[in-house]
Amino acid sequence: MDLKTVLQTIRPSFLVLTPICLFLSLSVSLATESPINYLMFCLVMIGAMSAHISVNTLNEYYDFKSGLDLQTKKTAFSGGSGALPGNPEMAKVILIVGLATLMVTIVIGIYLIIESGIQILPIGIVGVMLIITYTHWLNRSPFLCLVAPGLGFGVLMVVGTHIVLTGGHTQILWLVSLVPFFLINNLLLLNQYPDITADASVGRNTFPIAFGLQKSNIVYAIFTVAAYSLILLLITKGYIPNMSIIALIPMIFSLFSLIGAIKHASNIGDFPVYMGANVVAAILTPLLLGISIVYG
Q: Where are the domains positioned within the chain?
């Protein structure tokens, strides 16, 4: 077995998004002064990381089987890892990794339901459905494909973790979860720009394919404004501390990425600085927000 190929398809550099979202949820939980069971948090982390690995590897497998992997232009942020075209004999192994990590997620989810109550079940079901349907079905619906990443990483992970840790949820929690929701949607949206032609050739119908890059840029701008306006609203209403103003700093990176998207359109993959800035905004914003909630 070629471990290098397995590691490439797991996309380890992308996995940092999961602990960041869980940290934001933990921060809100700590702010409620509820007793935290860190063993349960560790189980949530393992389950969430397994889910992320499952999405990545299954997506790599099906992109290889569909022929998409042979058509995309590989960049640091789009086009897939390119691992399987050079090692086609590893395809079944990658499929097994994807299914095995999905099973780990399901088993941990069942245990969390037993320990935390049935209220976590709907979140678990939706999460599993997102993993199973993302490549084959969700990518054929522009609107579902647009919001699926933020729903999975932003809303489900943040809210689900909080329910496991505290036994309940609040309106503030849902509002806070919308910050990563908008930014992670933007993260995947921009990454789709360089792959428009290749994605369309295998039947995908992402938002940029269905509505064009000009409207996609408008959506990116709306999501950016929504994320950072929400932070301001939560501060002014006193729901989160004034220190949370630091979470507005990464907006500079989102605006920089938007400029790149407007300027370079589908060629933005040739200018990784813009796509990298988009990643920084999606990661740094919830991180700073979480830190400010804990210490503010």
A: 3-295
